[in-house]
Design a protein that fits this description.
The protein is of the alpha+beta class and 301 residues long. The protein contains 11 helices and 9 strands. The radius of gyration is 21 Å and the shape is globular.
């Protein structure tokens, strides 16, 4: 070492390398900043949900305060169709995880709650996204051996819902859908304990499943509801119209839905609640009418 040369501590070297790496990664990917904010906000929201569940159990459902969760505003900058699908699927996964995969008993009364987890915008406005539901049913999530579909319906160990089976499922192939990135999309978590809505929904879903005559992916609906096990389903296309209108979200909500998943728990032969995760075109007036809450800075005009 030369005389007068300052020694840079090892931890500073590591810190500088990390900063450089992040700067380079951001320059190429463009989504690092968004994802970092997402992690922080989602972590805070998940802690709110867990605290709420604990409080509900301890107080037997009395004097519960609203769950405070901010909507994450995110801009997807990628031009690659498969990457856009992946980022949207990851947002759905994050929302579903935050709200305990629709399996938590969140409220003591017949509450209906609608939360916008993500409000997505796109830097590239002319990208055509085809067959997003097929992507969800055939693509394994990073680091695991099950698909997004399996995760959303809590069937991660059921081979009947594997990516290989999904590729063979003719009913899924018939459900073609597409949308463009020329408008904002909202990732929505919807929860209802209204027993009338739930009963109407499960009856129509059972009928829809039988009428479709589908195999493993769609035939699961009626059986799961009737058998008293945790129920879940994956639907798209015209059945969305049946399901969503039944629970009285809004007469127009079935438009522009690219994926729909449901989970519920059985209580006295019908689910004690139903929980949905879906992506839909964002319309401020319509969302207000639906009661879907957007919390946080106003970026939605």
């Amino acid at each position: 070492m030369r005389k007068g040369q300052r020694v840079v501590p090892h931890y500073m070297v590591v810190f500088i390398i990390v900063i450089i790496f992040l700067a380079v990664a951001y320059a190429f990917a463009g989504n690092i900043g968004n994802r970092t904010i997402d992690v922080i906000q989602n972590g805070a929201c998940e802690r709110e949900v867990i605290s709420h569940i604990f409080t509900k159990e301890a107080s037997r459902g009395k004097n519960l305060k609203p769950i405070r969760c901010e909507t994450v505003n995110q801009t997807i900058v990628s031009k690659n169709v498969e990457e856009v699908k992946f980022l949207m699927a990851e947002n759905m996964k994050s929302c579903w995880k935050t709200w305990k995969k629709g399996q938590a008993d969140l409220y003591g009364a017949e509450v209906t709650d609608c939360r916008v987890c993500y409000l997505l915008d796109f830097e590239e406005k002319d990208i055509l996204i085809n067959d997003f539901q097929l992507f969800l049913s055939r693509t394994e999530m990073p680091g695991v051996d099950y698909t997004y579909l399996q995760y959303f319906i809590s069937e991660t160990e059921n081979e009947e819902f594997s990516a290989e089976k999904a590729r063979e499922e003719k009913a899924l192939l018939k459900m073609q859908s597409s949308f463009k990135t020329d408008s904002k999309k909202a990732v929505i978590f919807y929860y209802t304990k209204n027993q009338n809505k739930i009963l109407e929904t499960t009856e129509l879903l059972d009928t829809a499943a039988n009428n479709m005559g589908a195999g493993s992916a769609l035939g699961f609906i009626g059986g799961a509801i009737d058998s008293g096990t945790t129920c879940g389903f994956f639907l798209s296309g015209f059945i969305n119209n049946v399901c969503i209108n039944t629970i009285h979200l809004n007469k127009e909500i079935h438009k522009d839905i690219s994926g729909l998943f449901v989970a519920g728990k059985e209580v006295n032969d019908i689910p004690g609640w139903l929980s949905f995760i879906l992506i839909k075109d964002y319309n401020k007036a319509e969302f207000e009418e639906m009661g879907c809450e957007i919390v946080g800075p106003e970026h939605n005009k």
